[in-house]
Specification:
Nuclear Transport Factor 2, Chain: A
């Protein structure tokens, strides 16, 4: 299963960033394939800030100091989903919940505004809400785009 990239191949940079942050990320997550997802991060440049679903910057935390720490959290989240939902539901639900249509690029730096608004249905009938947004920071290095960090788990929408 794939999602439709809203950018055309003629808009090469946005097309590539979307593919990295949506298609490859969601596909890897639905398989707990951290190695595939990790391959999109620029080594030595990563940082991750957890917004804690709060619009108040005072509540944001530098929870992911490096890729190893973030990778453990990413794998744990994926395993939690796959323990409770079929992989096909994780994939379909994640694609349905994900929107990435705003990517601001200045030179070799980009900010991608990835939003989640949906849910994953569990085998039990319960659902896990996917409702937050993440700002991904990307850098073009050696001819391709890489993830260098993010400010994630922010409210969607942010509010006043």
């Amino acid at each position: 299963m794939t999602a439709k990239n809203p950018f055309t191949p003629q808009d090469k940079d946005r097309f590539e960033i979307w593919d990295m942050l949506v298609q490859r990320d969601v596909t890897a997550y639905a398989k707990t394939d951290w190695a595939s997802h990790r391959a999109d991060f620029l080594e030595g440049q990563f940082f991750g800030i957890d917004g804690g679903h709060s619009a108040n910057p005072d509540a944001w935390r530098s929870s992911f100091s490096d890729l190893e720490v973030y990778g453990k959290a990413w794998v744990a989240s994926s395993l939690h989903m796959l323990e409770n939902a079929e992989a096909s539901e994780v994939l379909a639900g994640s694609f349905a919940a994900t929107t990435l249509t705003h990517i601001d690029i200045t030179g070799n730096f980009a900010i991608a505004h990835k939003k989640f608004d949906g849910a994953i249905r569990f085998r039990s009938g319960a659902q896990e809400a996917l409702n937050w947004q993440t700002l991904y920071f990307c850098a073009k290095h050696e001819g391709r785009w890489w993830i260098t960090g993010f400010l994630g788990y922010l409210p969607n929408p942010m509010g006043a």
